[in-house]
Amino acid sequence: MYSKDICRRYLTNNGQVRVTVIIATSMVTDARNIHNLSNVATAALGRTMMVTTMMADMLKDTDNMLTVQIRGDGPLGNIIVCSNNSLNTKGYVQNPQVELELNKNGKLDVAKAVGKGSLNIVKDIGLKNPYIGYSELISSEIAQDFAYYFVTSEQTPSVVSLGVNISKQLEVEIAAGYIIQPLPECEEKVIDLIENINLNISSVTNLAMDLGDIDEIVKFITGDNNIKLISEKSPCYKCDCNYDRVDRTIIAIGKNEAIKIANENNGKIEVNCHFCNKTYEYDVERINGLFTK
Fold first, then answer.
1. How far apart are CA 198 and CA 162, in angstroms?
2. Which of 113, 123, 121, 194 has its CA nearest to residue 161?
3. Domains with residue ranges and CATH for the chain
4. Are strands 79-84 and 236-237 parallel, antiparallel or unpaired?
5. CA 249 to CA 48: how far, in whole Å?
6. Distance (Å, whole) CA 52 – CA 201
7. Pairing relation of β-strands 131-136 and 117-124?
8. What are the start-end ranges of the E strands in the chain?
9. What is the rounded CA–CA span in Å between residue 279 and residue 29?
10. DSSP single-letter state for residue 127
11. What is the largest CA-CA distance in the chain?
């Protein structure tokens, strides 16, 4: 079984297919604990974090950044996730304590929690302007929505599977997912093979628990026993907020305005990070010090 979070990228089927697989149980558990997430919020944010992390793994340079925003009209509100090529991932949902009844299949009703809306992708890859992609939510189950995004915005037909299991003890039992992308010269028979295999996989988490090994997952979902490992990284929940970043925000407000806000709020400004819930406090003396520097 999986002792740690891991993300691996492979070439399969004689180099015709790229596969990325992630086990992110600890990362999703950290998100659940930081934000005090309900079960359905854990599933929605966990799925989004895993697919964002796998997409970030496809970026070329370590400082490249990917931001995903799911804007739905359901009770969860917006979902925001950021990750970089080092697979440091952070995220939050607008309304983390939403509880819903299970859907007709007895599963967490992520689609109802997310609602109708759109998926926005921003890739900062060091160019003058970031790449911005957009697509509609077609199912609001998240995996299908990203598959639709890949084919409509990036012209890359993809199989996307994501899952978060919550145990009877209300803990994240396992979080797993994968993306399969045929490369441009992929033979039609290979695409048909992979489609047929994946149509019969109802749960990536059950598959991951049954097989207990990432290599075996890849072999199963591609029908290929001669897989080639390309890269391996350790994803984690990590927020990069700090006083230096917040200092710049306060400075951008301007000294007079910052002091005015502080005086209207018991002599201090409190800045809360949505991603890690850390609070940064600035009293008038600290604000003056910023502008003195």
1. 12
2. 194
3. 6-237 (3.55.30.10), 243-292 (3.90.1280.10)
4. unpaired
5. 28
6. 22
7. antiparallel
8. 6-12, 17-23, 65-72, 79-84, 88-93, 117-124, 131-136, 159-166, 172-182, 228-233, 236-237, 268-272, 279-283
9. 21
10. S
11. 69
Determine the distance from the C-alpha atom of residue 149 to the mean position of all C-alpha atoms in its chain, rounded to a whole number: 15
Nearest to 204 by CA among 42, 66, 21, 74: 21
Nearest CA to 22 among 227, 208, 221, 239? 208
Task: For residue 86, give the amino acid letter.
Answer: S
Q: In order along the chain (293 residues), what is the average pLDDT of each group of 10 residues?
A: 93 98 98 97 98 95 91 98 97 96 93 98 85 95 98 95 95 97 96 96 96 97 97 96 92 93 92 94 92 80
Separation CA 271–CA 282 (nearest Å): 8
